[in-house]
Design a protein that fits this description.
It is a single chain. The chain contains 14 helices and eight strands. The longest helix is centred in the middle third of the chain and has 15 residues. The termini are far apart.
Length: 294
């Protein structure tokens, strides 16, 4: 993809960018370590860096960075090499997804760190986004490393598997993760002992990658598919949470359809773009309360 990119004063500006809205990107349930500033910009921490993102008119402004880091880290992180117009055109053949795309038109699938996503989505099980964010920030503050301060807030790296593996169950529970603490500690132990290389899983076919992720206690099909979609570039993964289940039953299938049936239907219907369809439908359903029983 070609962009009109300008560097000035610790900022990168992309002029007239399409398919890019920070609110749609960060509030669609795929990332948790972000903070909304008073000016409605978003400050995030990822890959040991702090970045602020805003949209002014048709321009995206990436602050607290330089061209080298932008091209090395953030270009891929924001999936800027992908043609989202092409994805939208293909998915819009389905009238329901077409409406969902209009609602979340600026969404992009982020390419995040595999280890951080493993722990993030273990933490997400039967949990609320606000609590997930708080727990992950506490884990990082206590057991990560200080990266720096930005706009009055301190930001920390995500703790390594080795650092979490040295902790007790109570230490992890103190970060507000509840029953998930044992799963987080188990994942840290598996990675630290090099029983599984979480960074090599993305090189496997989707079914094999899912199989390896399901080895981790606390990782079920939905969590595995989230990890694959948001950090392993498996765009054919189709995570099913309560909102996706509701929207799929509301528009496509009968009520109380089994999750395996919904997953197979989504994968077959949307193919290699299933993950993108899922995200548009998820955001659409959650924000509008589609399928929610009164």
């Amino acid at each position: 993809m070609r962009y009109d990119l300008i560097e000035e004063n610790d900022k990168i500006i992309i002029k007239n960018i399409k398919n890019f809205e920070p609110k749609h990107i960060f509030e669609c349930g795929q990332a948790f370590r972000w903070h909304v500033e008073e000016d409605d910009s978003y400050t995030i921490v990822a890959f040991g860096k702090i970045l602020n993102i805003s949209k002014v008119g048709n321009d995206a402004i990436f602050s607290n960075t330089n061209k080298e880091d932008f091209l090395k880290i953030w270009y891929h992180y924001f999936d800027l090499d992908r043609d989202y117009d092409k994805i939208k055109d293909e998915l819009s053949k389905d009238e329901i997804v077409k409406e969902a795309i209009k609602f979340g038109s600026g969404m992009r699938i982020l390419n995040q760190d595999e280890w951080e996503m493993l722990i993030s989505f273990i933490t997400s099980a039967n949990n609320m986004i606000s609590r997930i964010k708080k727990s992950l920030n506490l884990l990082s503050e206590k057991y990560g490393e200080l990266i720096g301060e930005y706009r009055g807030n301190k930001y920390y790296s995500f703790p390594s598997a080795e650092s979490l593996n040295r902790l007790s169950l109570e230490d992890i529970k103190d970060c507000g993760v509840g029953f998930r603490a044992k799963y987080i500690l188990s994942a840290a132990n598996i990675i630290s002992r090099e029983e599984i290389d979480v960074y090599a899983i993305k090189n496997l076919p989707t079914e094999d990658a899912r199989r390896d992720l399901l080895i981790f206690p606390g990782v079920g099909p939905k969590v595995a598919d989230c990890i694959m979609l948001f950090s392993m570039e498996k765009s054919d993964a189709f995570p099913i949470d309560v909102w996706v289940k509701r929207v799929m039953e509301y528009f496509y299938l009968k009520e109380d359809t089994k999750l395996k049936v919904i997953q197979k239907y989504g994968e077959e219907k949307f193919g290699h773009l299933a993950g993108f369809a899922q995200q548009y439908l998820f955001y659409y359903a959650r924000e509008l309360g589609i399928g929610k029983k009164k």
